[in-house]
Design goal:
Helices cover 70% and strands 0% of the residues. With 61 residues, it is an all-alpha fold.
Length: 61
């Protein structure tokens, strides 16, 4: 169970990095551009989750 919680905590960190910390220095995808893309429906949370899931499944299948 400790490993599972560590993995889940790391995923939470990945989300924080993706949504905030990595956006600070990224000129191509700022936090504002990412937020606007979601707000405008250009991309959905489900589409992002599906992509993440696909990458994981490709690694572990």
């Amino acid at each position: 169970m400790i490993v599972k919680q560590t993995i889940l905590d790391t995923i939470e960190d990945l989300c924080s990095d993706f949504l905030y910390y990595d956006r600070k220095e990224d000129e191509d995808l700022t936090m504002e551009l990412l937020n606007k893309a979601v707000e405008d429906g250009e991309i959905t949370v489900k589409e992002m989750v599906d992509k993440f899931e696909s990458c994981l499944r490709n690694t572990y299948s």
